[in-house]
Amino acid sequence: MALPSASGVPTISVVFGSSTAGGAYQPGMSDYTIMVKDQAKVYLGGPPLVQMATGEIATHEELGGADMHSRTSGVSDFLASNEHDAVRLARQVVAGFDLRASVPIPRSVIDGTPPEPPRYPAEDLLSVASADIRVPYDVREVIARLVDGSRFHEFKPLYGAGLVCAFAAINGYQVGVLANNGVLFSQEAQKATQFIQLVNQRGVPLLYLSNITGFMVGKQYEQGGIVKHGSLFINAVTNSTVPAITVVIGASYGAGNYAMCGRAYRPRFLFSWPQSQCSVMGAEQLAGVMDIIAREAAKSSGRKINEEQAAQRKMLFKTAVEEENDVYYTSARCIDDGIIDPRDTRAVLTMCLSACYQGAWSGAFYSGISRL
């Protein structure tokens, strides 16, 4: 399984029943893995072996059930409701492969089929994405108003829910989409790393829809390897060889900017929506952090804090950060290629993809040594 994948030949495992011991590595090493709910079992050791070896009592589902691997371990990429659905999902994966040309071209060029417009009007984007970037929404609503037929094939939909990864088409041009749906955890970072590798294997452009305040912080997440997993994600973004297009549809803060292919990561095109912001972090949070640091410095030197001055200093700092976060401030300094009306996003992306598809792109995807 490793050798075909390394040579660019996609591998798919569809697990209908048990895949144990050494057999567990076949779905584990496949590029795409589909498991049938309530039937598939993938583990190194089943319940009897686990009980004899460790004394632990566990069920088949707990050790290697399809639902567990789809939601918790990430071994499964797609959870099928039954065997027929598993075959359908496998056909859907294969349909995304383009084996006819070194650079995939729109279907309309191949057989004259006109691209299917989204089923939902672009005007909806003005209400789907709030002018206040702190208001959450499901980014799938944005994707559905950009892609052909509002159809997209979501990768690992039950794993790392804070990042939507999907295969879709925009005016006939195939793309791999990464879109934020919340803060990034380790699961999201691992999911994104695999997805970027798959998109490079397919040889289609990447579209980043960025609305990210950053990676999750705290003792639990630091000890769980958030730096390590985030590094893998950013490594994949950096070394990806297919064209990348970024649209900042909300926040683009700190390390989240790195992960979602900010300016420093050389996207072919980078645009911003009018309400978007780009900064180290939000103005309120950054002002609060600086206030805490100032208080700790005063405490260590034995100085008394003047609360009135501290509050004024915090407010002035917050105001200055808000001004520099503003999309017009950052766009004027070439942090993006321009501010676009959300309703024009599909048309702008079509022009960008057309430019990308004018020439071949090449180069093997190799991420270097990774701290796994």
Can you walk through the features of this model?
The radius of gyration is 23 Å and the shape is globular. It is of the alpha/beta class. The protein folds into two domains: 2-94, 2-enoyl-CoA Hydratase, Chain A, domain 1 (Alpha-Beta Complex), CATH 3.90.226.10; 104-274 and 339-356, 2-enoyl-CoA Hydratase, Chain A, domain 1, CATH 3.90.226.10. The chain is built from 17 helices and twelve strands. The longest helix has 19 residues, at 307-325. Helices cover 41% and strands 16% of the residues. Helix 10 (186-202) runs parallel beside helix 12 and helix 14 (283-300) runs antiparallel to helix 15. Strands 6, 7, 8, 9, 10, 11 and 12 form a seven-stranded mixed sheet that branches.
Question: What is the gist of this entry?
Answer:
The protein is 41% helix and 16% strand. The chain is α/β, with parallel strands linked by helices and 372 residues long.
Properties at a glance:
EC 6.4.1.4; alpha/beta; single chain; 12 strands; COA_CT_C; COA_CT_N; 372 residues; methylcrotonoyl-CoA carboxylase; 2-enoyl-CoA Hydratase, Chain A, domain 1; 2 domains
